[in-house]
Design goal:
113 residues, mainly alpha, 2 domains, 60% helix, disordered C terminus
Length: 113
């Protein structure tokens, strides 16, 4: 047992070489060390969280306005959203595109006059 193990609450241990071998039958059926290796190798299950949109959007907007580097680190990640939200976002995007096209045409016609 290491000095750090002695400072931890009862039953807690610092990860060490001897923890790589299953200690009990329960450890053998679902060994933590195997799950950890899978996560390191990228073959383990992805961790996900459910977050209300009202908490997420302001943080993302703030990060974009500040040009936060961490936001670009996740730029290619896939986000799962509700199908209804997807439909609303598509409709909003099309409406915005149509409005921008009209305003651009209006500006061009006013400039020509």
């Amino acid at each position: 047992m290491s000095d750090l193990d002695q400072q931890l609450p009862a039953g807690w241990k610092i990860w060490s070489d001897d923890s790589a071998t299953p200690q009990t039958e329960a450890d053998a059926s679902d060994p933590r060390w195997m799950r950890e290796l899978d996560l390191i190798a990228g073959t383990g299950p992805n961790k996900t969280r459910s977050v209300p949109l009202k908490l997420l959007v302001p943080l993302l907007l703030s990060a974009q306005q500040r040009n936060s580097t961490w936001l670009s680190d996740f730029a290619d990640d896939t986000v799962v959203i509700d199908a209804d939200l997807h439909d609303v976002l598509l409709a909003y995007g099309n409406l915005r595109l149509a409005n921008n096209g009209d305003s651009a045409a209006g500006t061009a016609s006013r400039a020509a006059a």
